[in-house]
Amino acid sequence: MACRYDRYQQAEAWQGRGMDLFSPLRYLLCQHLAQQYLYLLADNNYYPDQVIHNLTTRFVMSNNQPKRHLILNLVRFINSEQAMSQGASLAQLRQLPAWSATELFGVTAAISQDEYIAIHLAQYRTGQVQQTLSQWQSVLQQLLEKDNHWLWLLDDNIVNDGDKVTLADFWPLGAGDEQKLSVNVKAIYTQNGEKALHELLDEIALAVNDTALFSQRRNQFISNYHQQYQSAWLRLAQAMPQAESYIRGKSNWQQLMLDTAQNASPYLLFFNRLAIESTSIPQSEQQPWLSDQLSL
């Protein structure tokens, strides 16, 4: 079996690189090796009708982070299937974002993901694949409709640079005092957070079957997200005066005076940061306080 797997991988590599073999011959060789590879293999495919109930139940019962993982794995699985159906090579498929069968289907995978991709691609090559792509897309649509607010997207863990914004970013505070001032802006409500959010939504957009509906839902979600985004920054702005009473020690006061003299006061730093972090919010969606501040 390992030998057949290696031969089939080599044939796919030839196909992908366009080696010097005459094209029809290369195609027939790839077909032959794909058939050899599939011979006597067990059915390791995943079928929608076998897992839809399990997927839906797990999604409904899960917290936001597991929900996001479930959606993301399903999306990447669908996008991999789409790429296969569109003629992607084995090398191209292995460059796509990875998905986990264990996280998606709740079962321990019998084979590695690389092997699954190779087997399924061989089935496409030989016409033995069952066409289930539209069914998987329907499953995704059902899950997206189970939570109309998509709160599972609003998680700091999707942000690579997951640092929240705190009062200590603007005031010279000690670690202990920083913890007492619990007001902060979560990383998801920063420019890095919004970038990560759109990257995830872009992946989902590739997988859905009704792109117009998804685009509409996405726009609604982002509009609501921008309102929450602004509210998070407003709470931090309102807490700014509290931080001054937590400045302790001569050195911290000296640093504050020096910063203020050099046009780097906490308030100026905050408003400069706010202007940067608000660039993606359209004027039509800006709350009055933000619009007034940005117009100064």
TrEMBL record:
Q: Which organism is it from?
A: Arsenophonus endosymbiont of Trialeurodes vaporariorum
- The name this protein carries in UniProt is Uncharacterized protein
Taxon lineage: Bacteria, Pseudomonadati, Pseudomonadota, Gammaproteobacteria, Enterobacterales
- Superkingdom of the source species: Bacteria
